[in-house]
């Protein structure tokens, strides 16, 4: 183990040159002096902290416990007089983000991994940087990402836009298109079917009642609705020439309803 003073001076040099360091997270705790949760790293006897606000580009509110034992890449942000080294994963991500955007603006595409689904699409990551991929920029039809992909699957993406507040939006390089052919012969007036709310507009609600078939209905006055909700839908009109179905929402179905009929 190096003399502590010499070791600390080495980290001052790492800060100045912007060297990315890799370490294993040894512990997480609430630090009374910093008044925040920290991840503790040990660089051969030199203590280093990653405060909560230096962990990610976006605010992180969940527990740090799952990260203990995992490796982390950081930059040295500060070296205090008492020898404590303050590190930042956030700075690493910001640098990676800037590099990634520069390459994507130039037209480069990347394989992104699906991290989680939302009502409007999915959050995908490229080298730790998150993008929102909306359903309408994933498929040519009404297919949602969650219908054909799983968390952990990869999608090739390109940059769509960057919002003023820094959110990143992506677009699939190759748009998904369902091979399902809509057959309106199976639908008739007064049928009640299960559907999923796809879109809510001032003039009405689009409810998916079959692959590639969204039916239009009025916004219900007696029920609160949201995207991706499952509903009971009564068909009031089937226009086979126009390929359109109209109807009304009867009720919103509870989430994960698996009630058995006895």
TrEMBL record:
Among InterPro entries, the record links this protein to: NA-bd_OB-fold, Ribos_protein_bS1-like, S1_domain
Q: Which GO terms describe its biological process?
A: translation
Q: Which UniProt keywords apply?
A: Plasmid, Ribonucleoprotein, Ribosomal protein
For this record, the Gene Ontology CC terms, alphabetical, are: ribonucleoprotein complex; ribosome
Q: Which residues form the signal peptide?
A: none
Question: Which Pfam families does this UniProt record tie to the protein?
Answer: S1
A molecular function (GO) term: mRNA binding
| S1 motif domain: residues covered | 107-174, 190-254
Stored SMART domains: S1 (SM00316)
Q: Which family does it belong to?
A: Belongs to the bacterial ribosomal protein bS1 family.
The protein in question is named: S1 motif domain-containing protein
Source organism of the structure: Jeotgalibacillus malaysiensis
